[in-house]
Amino acid sequence: FVRDLEKLLDEARAELATFLGADPADLAFVANATAGVNAVVRSLEFSPGDEVLTTDHAYNACRNALDDAAERGGARVSVARVPFPLADPGEVVEAILAAAVPGTRLALIDHVTSPTGLVLPVGEIVQALQSRGIDVLVDGAHAPGMVPLDLRALEAAYYTGNCHKWMCAPKGSAFLWVREDRRDAVR
Predict the structure, then answer these.
(1) Which of 185, 120, 187, 118 is nearest to 154 (CA)?
(2) Does residue 115 surpass a pLDDT of 90?
(3) What is the DSSP letter of 46?
(4) β-pairing, 76-80 with 158-162?
(5) Which residues of 27-55 are buried (b: 16+ CB within 10 A; e: fewer)?
(6) Reduced to 3 DSSP states, what percent helix, strand and coil does the chain have, rounded to the nearest 5?
(7) Measured at the alpha carbon of residue 99, what is the angle toward residues 58 and 91, in degrees to the nearest 5?
(8) In what order do the strands lie in the sheet with 51-55?
(9) Could you say which DSSP state residue 51 is in?
(10) I need a labelling partner for 102 at 20 to 30 A (CA). Which of 52, 70, 168, 178 fits?
(11) Would you state the pLDDT for residue 105?
(12) What mean pLDDT is reported for the chain?
């Protein structure tokens, strides 16, 4: 088991990377998407004057991790109010961009919201926020296998997702993808 495990994990990571449109070197296995969110937000250092952004549709455990990381550094959490039901996906983008301020350093955005099942237009959101210098952490807990993913093309700073929901992998099968230029900062 010990002799074979690393090779088998490398093979599994390569298969997952192909499915996700990612480089295997950018992927790490985690227990679940919430653990992936925690790995990112606990690796980042926030300071007074910094803001972190999320929506009112965020998964509560991830929101708690964001609140804790912000509080430890003296940062502020701002919440974009996403209308529900939606008349148009552009409403989500508008709400998030309206809540982003010059001090916003990170946005935690769900790909598919847990409480409402909305599939957010993460491609537009990532592009708009990152053009303002705001890194995006996508909580894709429900997305892999449900919606097509191409993490290289998405270019978010961070993406985490579960494999046990739509991909039918065992519980405890999840991943954290970190864009190459952000890898050294994540523990």
Answers:
(1) 120
(2) no
(3) -
(4) unpaired
(5) bbbbebbbbbbbbbbeebebeeebbbbbb
(6) 40, 20, 35
(7) 75
(8) 27-30, 174-178, 158-162, 135-140, 104-110, 51-55, 76-80
(9) E
(10) 178
(11) 98
(12) 96
Amino acid at 127: Q
- Predicted pLDDT at 2: 84
Q: Please state whether beta strands 104-110 and 51-55 pair in parallel, antiparallel, or not at all (unpaired).
A: parallel
Give the type of residue at 19.
F
Nearest-angstrom CA–CA distance, 117 and 114: 6
Query: What tokens were used for 90?
Result: 């552009």
* 73: CB partners within 8 A, 6+ apart: 45, 46, 47, 48, 50
Tokens encoding 51? 């803001």
Q: For 85-110, how does the pLDDT look when each residue is reduced to its tens digit (9 = 90+)?
A: 999 999 999 999 999 999 999 999 99
